[in-house]
Amino acid sequence: DIESLSDLKKLAVLGIGNGGIVYKVSHQKTNSIYALKLLRLDQNGAFISHQAVREAEILKRVDSQFIVKCHAVFYTLEGGLCFLMKHMEGGSLFDVLRVRGNFPEDVISGIALSVLKALQYLHGMRIIHGDIKPSNLLINGKGEVKIADFGVSRIVEGTPTPCEACMGAYMSPERVDSERWGGGADYDYYDYGFAGDVWSLGVVVLECLVGHYPLIGRGEKPDLVALICAICFGETLEMPETASPEFPSFVKNCLEKDWRKRGSVEELLAHPFVNRTTSSNMII
Ligand code: ADP
Ligand code: MG
């Protein structure tokens, strides 16, 4: 077991996100490879943010084959926080999509099933992931997809509170609304928080088939207003003519703008799109 950060040697940078830097590290004594996520300190310097503590709490709590395993949480001498995780050799879905362009439906079906199983587990524990997108879906050496990055997640207990996440392209219409207007009395944060993860999955699934962020035209670089319009009011989805009938049915179920009518995780798990009997749905 790894007891301190000094046992680890940095080998490379695996990724840089809003939350911090992720290094590929080796544990000298056992000669094993891990990923180490070093959280960025907040503006005040050395203090660990409320959200960082939340991310650590969630990582310690979750244990599922569909979620990237966290082996240990460390506090650094500078007062920061870092997570030692399983190294996912295949990188993120974002990186793989950039190289591959897009995926065949059977592969996407496997990705969707893995994410749904992860969400079923998390939602069962009252955890909203809140940031499902290609860069937070990681792939291991066997081609299995697992979700990572609980940097904006929250555990729903007691009085629900609005998310503190910043505006993102994978956010659901109801969440965009709450970001703009600060929420409304008619919203139940319990329900729409969970439904927001399903929306994000729908965007990812469609992106995997069409090969670009699907709510805006290919190659367009939208400003924030155009993005909000596309999420909240965009009516047409680009659906390849070659798609099977199950594909648009699944995606439209996820991308239903009214979260009350959107498919639930359980309903989508029963959808024919993710219940194909095929052995070739691994990414590699
Ligand atoms: P952030 O909160 O900054 O977005 P993430 O946890 O999403 O941090 O990690 C940022 C990036 O680092 C990911 O998109 C991925 O490319 C890479 N990464 C993160 N964790 C791992 C891991 N366990 N194995 C391999 N690469 C990883
Ligand atoms: Mg991330």
Quick tags:
alpha+beta, 17% strand, binds magnesium ion, 284 residues, kinase, 8 helices, five-stranded antiparallel beta sheet
- Quaternary structure state of the chains depicted: single chain
The helix-strand sequence is: EEEHEEEHHEEEEHHHHH
Give the overall silhouette: globular
Number of strands: 10
Which stretches are low in confidence, meaning pLDDT under 50 for 5 or more residues running?
162-166, 181-190
Q: What would you call the structural class?
A: alpha+beta
Structural summary, described in words:
The structure is a single chain. The protein is 33% helix and 17% strand. With 284 residues, it is α+β, with helices and mostly antiparallel strands. Mean pLDDT is 86; it is low at 162-166 and 181-190. The structure holds adenosine-5'-diphosphate (ADP) and magnesium ion.
In short:
This protein is 33% helix and 17% strand. It is built from eight helices and ten strands.
Protein topology:
Elements: E1 8-16, E2 20-27, E3 32-39, H1 50-61, E4 70-75, E5 81-86, E6 91-92, H2 93-100, H3 105-124, E7 127-128, E8 137-139, E9 145-147, E10 154-155, H4 173-181, H5 189-210, H6 224-233, H7 246-254, H8 265-269
Antiparallel strand pairs: 1-2, 2-3, 3-5, 4-5, 6-8, 7-10, 8-9
Magnesium ion (MG) binds at residues 17, 135-136, 149.
